Amino acid sequence: MKKVVLQLDLHGDRIKQKAMKTASGLSGVESVSVHMKDMKMIVLGDIDPVSAVSKLRKCCHTEIVSVGPAKEEKKENVEPAKVPVPLKLHEAYPLYYQMTPHYGQSHYVTSYEEDPSGCVIC
């Protein structure tokens, strides 16, 4: 997990929203935060900082300030509560493959005249 701090040239809320939407759309991003006073964006996650900057430069001027490991919170050693073991249910029989229905045969009836050169009106 990396912590990437980026310097952005933000002039308004609309550009800030576009930058946050672009940064959150990157693969591997877990959290995005923007500090408007410092004009800095902090991105946490498994991301490539160079690709993040190239995507963000499409909406505003962007520079990399720092890249480093994210600080992990210290967790106290707390024993997890014992979870009761669920009963194992019997598995249902699997469904069989349904065959497609067979279509009936169609018969075409043709009629032949005895005299093929006969008059149509008669």
TrEMBL record:
A GO molecular-function annotation: metal ion binding
Swiss-Prot/TrEMBL keywords: Lipoprotein, Metal-binding, Methylation, Prenylation
Listed PROSITE patterns: HMA_2
Domain (HMA) ranges: 1-67
InterPro entries associated with the record: HIPP (IPR051863), HMA_dom (IPR006121)
Family: Belongs to the HIPP family.
UniProt protein name: HMA domain-containing protein
Source organism of this protein record: Glycine max
